[in-house]
Amino acid sequence: MQIREATSHDIEGMWSLFCGVRANGELRYSAKIGREEFSVQWFNRDLQTYVAEELPHLLGAYKLGVNFPGINSHVAAAYYLVHTAVRGRGVGRALIEHSISRAQDVGYLEMQFNYIPSTSQPTMTLYTELGFDIIETQPRAFTDRCGELCEAYVLQRFLQ
């Protein structure tokens, strides 16, 4: 598996990846996001976007940028997509580790994830193993597949 910076040639594969993850029910907030909006959200001058591939297949992607501009510009945020067919092969771990390294390289002092559903145990286990801590619990912030309200977490890891 190779992780490299994404190019405009990757957008179709990334859009397909996004649609596959969304169809699996994992991106409940994204039902109305179209291809153009996706492209803007994943490719703009304020982000670094990377893909993981085993030619000719796109296995995953992530985008890295400022969590909130201005006084919090030292805090990075990243968003990840992993193809459902390759879950459990270490693609997510590799993407997260790569993003941590890139965030450190460009001088971010910490990474923060603002909305991780408590129902996503594999995700929470991975983030915990990689040094992220829950710094806030948001009660009843996420609606799961069954329509139940669940907690969401804010996670943080210091980088420097």
UniProtKB/TrEMBL annotation:
Query: Which residue range or ranges hold the N-acetyltransferase domain?
Result: 1-160
Q: Which domain of life is it from?
A: Bacteria
Entry-linked Pfam families: Acetyltransf_1
The Swiss-Prot or TrEMBL record annotates one GO molecular function as: acyltransferase activity, transferring groups other than amino-acyl groups
The record's annotation in InterPro entries points to: Acyl_CoA_acyltransferase (IPR016181), GNAT_dom (IPR000182), Mito_N-acetyltransferase (IPR052742)
Q: What is this protein called?
A: GNAT family N-acetyltransferase
Organism encoding this protein: Microbulbifer okhotskensis
